[in-house]
C-alpha cells in the first residue's frame, strides 16, 4: 500500500513540476519588469516644486541615490550646459548660509541653478531652493555657490541642480560616492579653509588658514605643536599621505614645510588638499586628528605678476561688505594720491560692488576683486592679501573704504598734489630698517546730517572727535614676519625691522566712522574682525570698536546726528572741492558716470 502511494506521488510530481517551473519563471520576469517600471517612475521629474524658490518637500527617490550622478546625463536649455561637468569640491556650514566650492568657473546667468537638500532620515525626500549667489573664486578658476541653510533634519551635504533639464541633472559627479561615504560637512568653527604656496627664491612653504586652532589673538604660537597633512585624493573623505612640520603659527595661520616630492616640483602643489593637526611634540605619535578641510593649495600665477624690477610702488588692500556706494570716491581720490593697484576682498556683498569695479577698471584703475566668503576672518584675509601682493607691490596699505589719507595744511597752504602719498612712502623704500609706516586716524561723526550729501563722505562729514583713535599702516609685504601676524591695523615685522609713526602734522587718516544713521546701522550686521565682538552681543560694550553709549540694538538715538562732534574740521572738504571739482559741470568725479 505504501509503495503504491509513493509511486503515485512521484508520478504526480513528474506531471506538475514543469508547469510549476514555468509559472515561477513568468512570475519572476513580471516582478523584475514591474520593479524597473517602478524605478523609472519614481526617478522621473514630476516633482511639484514651486518655481518661486520656496521650500516644498517632495517624497521621491533621487536618481542620485540609485546610481552615480555622472550617469544621469541629459541636455538642457540656455545656461544649463555649464552645469554638466561640475564637481562640488567642498562645503562649509557658516552661521547663516552654506558655502559650496565648485571646481569650475560659472558664468552668468546662474539664476537657473538650485541647491538640492536631502532628508537625513528619509533619503528619498528632496527639497530644492534657488542659490543665494555665485562668485568667482581662486583667480576665476573656480566658483563659490552660496546656499541657504538646510531645513530641519536635512543634510548639509547639499548638491546643485540646473533648472530646466528633463531629468534630475544633478551636477556633481562624485555625489554618489560621497553619499555612500556619508561625508561630514564641516562647520565654520573647525575647518581648514584656505592654503597658499609661498615661494621666495630658494625657499618655499605652504601657508594654511584654519578655524579651530584656538590660538591666542595677536600672539605668536609655538609652531612645534602643529603639523600639516597633504592628500592627493579629490574626495572630501580621504587619507593624508604626507605630513610635514610647521615652522610658524599665529591666530588662524600655520606655515609648514612642503613634502620633498612637492618641493622638487612646485607645479605639483596646485590643488592638493591640505589640513592641520595639533600634536604633542614631546610624545612621539601623540596628537589630534587633522581638522576637516576644504583647502587646496593655491599657486599665484607668475605670469599675472609684475617682475621684481617692475613692482608697483604703492598698492592698497581692503575688506568690505556692501560698501559699493563708497568705492568710487575712495578709489578715485586715492589713485590721485598715487595708489596704483587695488586688492578688494569682498566679504559676501550683495550690492553692486562688481559693477562699480568693472566700470572703474574700464578707466584703468587696476582693481582686483577677490571673493572672501569666510566670515569673522579679516585678519586672515589681510594675511592672504599680503601673500598675493608681495610679488607685485613694494608698499601695501591696509585701510577701509571709509578712511581717507589727508595731507594737512601748512602755513595756510595745501602741500599735497598728485601722487603725494606714493612719493611719501617711496622715501623709505630703500631704508635698511623701516618696514611699516603708521598714520593716526581722526574719527568723524554725522556732523549734524540726517542724510548723506551727493558729493560723498569727504565733503559731507566735517565734525570729528578731538583726540585721534588708533592708526592705519602701509607695509613692505616682503618684510612681514613668517606668521603674517596682524591686528588689522598693523603687522608683525621680521626681526631687524621696525615701524615708523608718521607725524600728524604731515599726514592723517580721516575715518568717517559714525555716519548718518541709515549708513551706520549696517555695522550691526556683523563685524568682520575675528577678535571683535559683534555689536548685537552683550560683550565688551566699552570697547573702542563699538560706538560709545549705543548698546546692542540698532535703534537710532534721538541725538545721533549731533554725536561725536568736538572739532569742526573742513580741511579735507575744502581740499577736495579745490582739486577735484569739474570746472564745467561743477561735479566731483564720483558724482558723475565715468562712461
Automatic annotation (TrEMBL):
Top-rank lineage group of the source organism: Eukaryota
Record has Cell cycle as a keyword: no
Entry's transmembrane regions: 21-42
Annotated localization: Membrane
Keywords assigned: Glycosyltransferase, Membrane, Transferase, Transmembrane, Transmembrane helix
Top enzyme class: transferase
Keyword Heme among record annotations: no
InterPro entries cross-referenced by the UniProt entry: Glyco_transf_92
EC number(s) reported in the record: 2.4.1.-
GO cellular component, as recorded: cytoplasm; membrane
Predominant location category: membrane
A Pfam cross-reference name: Glyco_transf_92
GO molecular function: glycosyltransferase activity
Mode of membrane association: Single-pass membrane protein
Family of this protein: Belongs to the glycosyltransferase 92 family.
Protein name (Swiss-Prot/TrEMBL): Glycosyltransferase family 92 protein
Species of the source: Salix udensis
Amino acid at each position: 500500500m505504501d509503495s503504491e502511494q509513493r509511486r503515485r506521488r512521484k508520478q504526480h510530481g513528474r506531471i506538475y513540476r514543469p508547469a510549476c517551473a514555468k509559472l515561477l519563471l513568468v512570475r519572476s520576469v513580471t516582478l523584475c519588469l514591474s520593479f524597473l517600471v517602478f524605478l523609472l517612475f519614481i526617478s522621473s521629474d514630476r516633482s511639484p516644486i514651486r518655481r518661486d524658490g520656496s521650500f516644498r518637500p517632495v517624497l521621491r527617490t533621487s536618481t542620485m541615490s540609485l546610481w552615480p550622478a555622472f550617469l544621469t546625463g541629459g541636455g538642457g536649455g540656455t545656461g544649463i550646459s555649464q552645469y554638466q561637468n561640475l564637481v562640488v569640491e567642498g562645503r562649509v556650514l557658516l552661521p547663516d548660509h552654506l558655502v559650496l566650492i565648485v571646481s569650475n568657473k560659472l558664468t552668468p546667468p546662474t539664476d537657473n541653478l538650485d541647491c538640492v537638500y536631502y532628508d537625513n532620515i528619509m533619503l528619498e525626500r528632496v527639497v530644492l531652493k534657488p542659490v543665494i549667489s555665485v562668485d568667482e573664486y581662486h583667480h576665476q578658476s573656480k566658483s563659490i555657490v552660496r546656499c541657504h541653510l538646510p531645513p530641519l533634519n536635512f543634510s548639509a551635504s547639499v548638491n546643485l541642480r540646473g533648472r530646466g533639464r528633463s531629468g534630475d541633472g544633478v551636477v556633481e559627479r562624485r555625489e554618489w560616492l560621497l553619499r555612500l561615504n556619508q561625508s561630514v560637512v564641516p562647520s565654520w568653527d573647525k575647518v581648514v579653509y584656505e592654503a597658499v604656496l609661498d615661494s621666495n627664491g630658494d625657499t618655499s612653504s605652504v601657508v594654511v588658514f584654519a578655524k579651530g586652532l584656538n590660538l591666542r589673538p595677536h600672539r605668536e604660537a609655538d609652531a612645534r605643536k602643529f603639523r600639516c597633512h597633504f592628500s592627493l585624493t579629490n574626495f572630501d573623505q580621504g587619507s593624508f599621505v604626507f605630513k610635514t612640520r610647521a615652522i610658524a603659527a599665529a591666530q588662524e595661520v600655520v606655515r609648514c614645510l612642503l613634502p620633498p616630492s612637492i618641493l622638487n616640483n612646485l607645479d605639483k602643489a596646485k590643488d592638493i588638499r591640505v589640513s592641520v593637526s595639533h600634536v604633542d611634540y614631546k610624545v612621539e605619535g601623540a596628537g589630534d586628528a587633522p581638522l576637516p578641510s576644504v583647502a587646496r593649495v593655491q599657486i599665484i600665477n607668475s605670469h599675472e605678476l609684475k617682475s621684481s624690477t617692475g613692482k608697483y610702488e604703492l598698492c592698497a588692500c581692503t575688506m568690505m561688505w556692501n560698501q559699493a556706494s563708497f568705492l568710487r570716491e575712495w578709489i578715485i581720490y586715492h589713485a590721485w594720491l598715487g595708489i596704483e593697484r587695488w586688492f578688494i576682498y569682498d566679504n559676501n556683498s550683495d550690492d553692486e560692488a562688481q559693477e562699480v569695479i568693472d566700470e572703474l577698471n574700464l578707466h584703468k584703475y587696476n582693481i582686483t576683486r577677490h571673493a572672501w566668503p569666510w566670515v569673522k576672518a579679516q585678519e586672515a584675509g589681510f594675511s592672504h592679501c599680503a601673500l598675493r601682493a608681495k610679488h607685485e607691490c613694494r608698499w601695501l596699505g591696509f585701510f577701509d573704504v571709509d578712511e581717507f589719507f589727508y595731507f594737512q595744511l601748512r602755513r595756510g597752504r595745501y602741500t599735497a598734489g598728485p601722487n603725494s602719498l606714493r612719493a611719501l612712502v617711496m622715501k623709505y623704500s630703500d631704508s635698511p630698517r623701516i618696514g611699516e609706516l603708521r598714520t593716526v586716524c581722526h574719527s568723524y561723526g554725522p556732523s549734524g546730517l540726517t542724510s548723506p550729501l551727493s558729493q560723498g563722505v569727504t565733503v559731507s562729514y566735517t565734525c570729528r572727535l578731538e583726540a585721534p583713535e588708533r592708526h592705519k599702516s602701509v607695509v613692505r609685504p616682503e618684510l612681514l614676519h613668517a606668521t603674517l601676524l596682524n591686528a588689522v591695523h598693523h603687522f608683525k615685522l621680521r626681526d631687524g625691522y621696525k615701524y615708523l609713526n608718521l607725524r600728524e602734522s604731515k599726514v592723517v587718516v580721516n575715518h568717517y566712522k559714525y555716519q548718518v544713521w541709515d549708513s551706520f546701522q549696517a555695522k550691526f550686521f556683523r563685524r568682520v574682525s575675528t577678535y571683535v565682538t559683534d555689536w548685537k552681543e552683550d560683550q565688551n560694550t566699552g570697547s573702542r570698536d563699538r560706538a560709545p553709549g549705543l548698546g546692542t540694538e540698532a535703534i537710532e538715538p534721538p541725538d545721533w546726528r549731533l554725536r561725536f562732534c568736538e572739532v569742526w574740521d573742513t580741511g579735507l572738504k575744502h581740499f577736495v572741492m579745490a582739486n577735484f571739482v569739474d570746472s564745467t559741470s561743477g561735479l566731483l568725479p564720483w558724482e558723475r558716470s565715468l562712461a
